[in-house]
Amino acid sequence: MFNRISILRGFTILYFLISVAEIASEYLSSKAIIIVFKPVLPLIIIVMYLLESTRKDKFYIVAMFFSIITNILFTPANDIFLYYGVIIFLIHRVLIVYVLLKINPVKDAIPFLLATAPFLLIFSYLLIETENIPENIYVLIIIQNILMSVFAGIALSNYVMNDNKQNSILLISAFLFVLLQFVIFIERYFQLYELKQIFRPMAMTLNVFAFYTLYKYMIVAEKLNND
Questions:
Q1: What is the C-alpha separation between 196 and 43, in angstroms, rounded?
Q2: Helix 138-161 and helix 79-103: axis angle, to 10°?
Q3: Predicted pLDDT of residue 188
Q4: What's residue 224's pLDDT?
Q5: In principle, which of 119, 181, 209, 221 could form an S-S bond with 149, CB 3.0–4.6 Å?
Q6: Contact 22, 38 (CB under 8 A)
Q7: CA–CA separation, 204 vs 71, rounded Å?
Q8: How many Cβ atoms from other residues are within 10 Å of residue 56's Cβ?
Q9: CB contact at 8 A, 167 and 155
């Protein structure tokens, strides 16, 4: 008879098996596999979270559902899908930042602002230097950069102020998400098509581990808060 732990282990193995297939399909530019598997990954994260979580944060679950929609919209090479995908992704990011602030409220604004500023400066520089961003999503990209900087600022300031297990995991997740945003930004908007076979699998690899690490953070944070 299967117990909850063995089922969870099975879903974890399934997550990484599909991830390997998805990374390979990005390298081979296999649209059929990408369309099928990419939305499945956040769905598996949701299932694992529901199996393991003691609190089951509704905002985190909704955020992951928005991630499924984002993965679907970002797959076609179409400006309309890209526009709506960016909007959905912004909602996802707002929810994630809200969840993080709910778990770890900012108690001291100065460390948080100091931790957020470098990321904001770097993302702003990339934005200024880029000439190929469609006008209809320019403001959305600015908001996305702010949200990503806040995410990273929360993670870094919490780690500096309190170096515990949950904050260490969150810092790793934030670092992976920052790298992911760099890779996507450079590949998509600097139009380095000759390096597409490198950037796409790299982005997918970062995506896989960033979301998995964020899920582990949620579990560890909930357990520590319960204790």
A1: 26
A2: 20
A3: 67
A4: 79
A5: 119
A6: yes
A7: 11
A8: 12
A9: yes
- Three-state SS for the chain is CCCHHHHHHHHHHHHHHHHHHHHHHHHHCCHHHHHHHCCHHHHHHHHHHHHHCCCCCHHHHHHHHHHHHHHHHHCCCCHHHHHHHHHHHHHHHHHHHHHHHHHCCCCCHHHHHHHHHHHHHHHHHHHHHCCCCCHHHHHHHHHHHHHHHHHHHHHHHHHHHCCCHHHHHHHHHHHHHHHHHHHHHHHHHCCCHHHHHHHHHHHHHHHHHHHHHHHHHHHHHHHHHHC
Cα separation, 89 vs 135, whole angstroms: 18
Amino acid residing at 150: V
Q: Which two tokens stand for residue 78?
A: 């179409």
Q: What is the pTM of this model?
A: 0.91
Using an 8 Å Cβ cutoff, are 116 and 153 in contact? Answer: yes
CB 16 within 8 Å of CB 23: no
pLDDT for the residue numbered 194:
61
d(CA 99, CA 59) in angstroms, rounded, equals 7
Asked if 189 and 133 count as a contact pair (C-beta separation under 8 A), the reply is yes
Alpha-carbon distance 9 to 16, whole Å? 11
Per-residue pLDDT at 196: 66
Binned average pLDDT, 10 residues per bin, the chain of 227 residues: 80 94 86 85 95 91 94 78 88 94 87 93 84 80 92 93 89 94 75 68 92 95 77
CB neighbour list of residue 49: distance below 8 Å, 6 or more residues apart = 56, 60, 61, 64, 215, 218, 219
At a CB cut-off of 8 Å and minimum separation 6, what does 225 contact? 103
